Amino acid sequence: MQLGIVTPVFTRVPGTHSSWEAEAGIEEAARVAVKADELGYHHVTCSEHIGIPTEVAKVRGFTYWDPLSTFGYFSAVTSRLRFVTFVLVLGYHHPMELVKRYGTLDRVSNGRLILGVGVGSLEEEFDLIGAEFADRGPRGDDAIRALKASFGKEMPEYHGEYYDYEGFVVEPHSMQTDMPIWIGGRTYRSLRRAVELGDGWVPFPNPPAAARATKTPAITSMIELAERLGAARDHADKVGRTAPLEVCFAPFDLEDEPKDYEAAGVTWLAVQFDGHTTRAGWIDRMRAYAATMIGSR
Question: N or C: which end of the chain has fewer CB within 10 A?
Fold first, then answer.
């Protein structure tokens, strides 16, 4: 099992992040990334939102750094650490835009990018940028197919329901010709999308209140997570998928036992170290956890 971190500073949800992050910037976050690289952590994350409606921000948080620019900075100061977009909202971008911009990031980082994507849920944010909300599911599916057909190619070509292009040069293109694409989301639909179209699934804790709001069974226990992953295996058999499905659970509760997640079928965990008043305290906790779980220095 691979162990990564939910990067501090970049996303701050009320009540779940450390006080020092409020005044921290890219240099503080980069020091965390450099230490994570040294300690043997596998990946760091960065989420995407363009603008959060004011009332929603009281729950989801006001701070969301842009993953493209922040990971570009990280790639210059680390050597092994992988970068996971957690997640990009497909409806906010044309696939060729992602192919060019994140393909360039993949080359800059020497092939260390994992593209986490999702269909999105904030209708107000879609309206803000003039993106279509009602058909975001099938449009997102077509975008994933387009990305799969286009990454790593100098002259990508795709002909689908929503996106249709050929005859354009994309240079530089991504170093990875089989760019890993992980599907984020809590719903069974996101799970089916991951099985049918993606390389991985990124579920995250879904407390009862959020479950009621999204009309989705909550993910609050190992039993519920195991049930979801059992459904994934059943659906993989149904559609004839033979490739393994990566499963990254984040944020992982430090009080839980990673081996239980591994037994359920989780292959990656992303840890969040909260409750520290200083960056040094955050890093100390990250170092102690690595010594126990990774065997790093």
Answer: C
Mean model confidence pLDDT for the chain:
89
Closest CA to 100 of 157, 154, 160: 154
CA-based nearest residue to 95, from 187, 179, 195: 179
Best CA proximity match to 225, nearest among 199, 258, 180:
258
Beta strand spans in the chain (E): 2-5, 11-12, 43-46, 63-64, 82-85, 88-89, 113-118, 158-159, 164-165, 181-184, 200-202, 246-252, 268-271
Q: Are 89 and 124 in contact (CB under 8 A)?
A: no
Q: Residue with structure tokens 């100098």? A: 154
Contact 232, 191 (CB under 8 A): yes
Taking only the tens place, the pLDDT of each residue in 261-289 is 888 889 999 998 877 788 899 999 999 99
| Domain boundary assignment for the chain | 2-183+271-293
Highest CATH level, class, for 2-183+271-293:
alpha beta
